[in-house]
Amino acid sequence: MIMYWFLIIILVICSYASTSTSANSGGRVEYLPGFQGPLPFYLETGYVGVDENEDAQLFYYFIRSESNPDDDPLMLWITGGPGCSSISGLLYEIGPIQFEAVRYNGSLPTLISTPYSWTKMASIIFLDIPVGTGFSYARTKWASRSTDTLLSVHAHEFMRKWFESHPEFVSNAFYVGGDSYSGIPVPIITQLISDGNEAGNVPYINLKGYVLGNPATFPGEINYRILFANGMGLISEELYKSLFQTCRGEYRAEYVGTSNIGCRQNLDFYQECIDGIEEPHILEPYCGNPMLLIKLPTRKLLNDPLSSPSCRKDRTQQAYYWINEASVREALHIRKGSIREWIRCNPDLNFTRTVYDVRPYHLNLSNKGYRSLIYSGDHDMVIPHQSTQAWIKELNYSVIDRWRSWKLNGQIAGYTESYSNKMTFVTVKGGGHTAPEYKPRESVAMFKRWISNHPL
Predict the structure, then answer these.
(1) What range does the record give for the signal peptide (predicted)?
(2) What domains lie within the chain, and their CATH numbers?
(3) Which residues contact 343 (CB under 8 A, 6 or more apart)?
């Protein structure tokens, strides 16, 4: 009988230990299939349980700064979507490795080092969020749901728990970053962390600010696509003036009345003019339906004569062929049975949009004195730089460093303007919707100067 109760106690302890590990588990990755030799940087992957009963298991990739991780800043990075895996940020934008730029030939894609990683000067946590994104998963159907607000709450809870298991980074300067749709949750997450600090939450997070690229911010930004198209010569001056007169500056379909025939006709002419334009970067080849960017590619695409290596979707497809390999999943410490088939951007995410305008968050964070870097690839038509400049101007802070060019190696790399609320706006010349993906050299120079408190 004594032995029986002893075994019961051991089982309870083991069960508790297993649950605790499940809530916040991680492990170092020293080798990755497709990369020759040991990784030249510290990579850790793992899960952190959030939500009620920790039924939402959030997966992350953590890369220590390659310079001085003890003192360098730490940043939480969230890829847009919503529902796009943070592997997009890691392998295509700001991480230390990327796929070799060759057409897929049926073998495991090759990974190579890149000198343009933001981890050269900062530690970065690439988080798969909301739940259902990448390798993050829900243990119950109820836990699979998410909204803008719930996503942000989960991210805040994630960071507090992550710091509990990584106390050596608690004192590092901390930033929240992301691009595209992450323009919505990043300011909310930053606000939640700030409020948590003020409320005395433990651990105290050394929040310093946030970073956003071509960020979604408010519903009216779609109207600036017309202004962008005119400025880039995609539509005629006559059509631009006619659009403005008939639509009165509001081009969203839901706001154009059925009786406004002139506006609707002009919008049809506008759509004809931009048909065949690659909106994330208007100078890139048009590669067909953008939904190909988020769906699992088929082997048929390998022999598609219309699929050129110059199409960016060919490069994003490499992630599918790589990450769905059993050896890769094992190396990344992916829990067996948690995600059957990895999808870069989940089109079936159980997500409800609840926040449409985050300008009040930017204003509040500005009033609290947090730093912010807002950058725009200037050839992006999805979130044009004009719309970003517009809401920044609406914050009504004085200019302390007026509009000017910034340079790299003696060449103009873009333009910048800084404001009294510690906000810096930057354009990346020639950049697209995710500027570091298109202009890595310029983007890493921009980030390095800003994060080091140096003028651009």
Answers:
(1) 1-17
(2) 23-219+354-451 (3.40.50.1820), 235-274 (no CATH)
(3) 85, 294, 295, 296
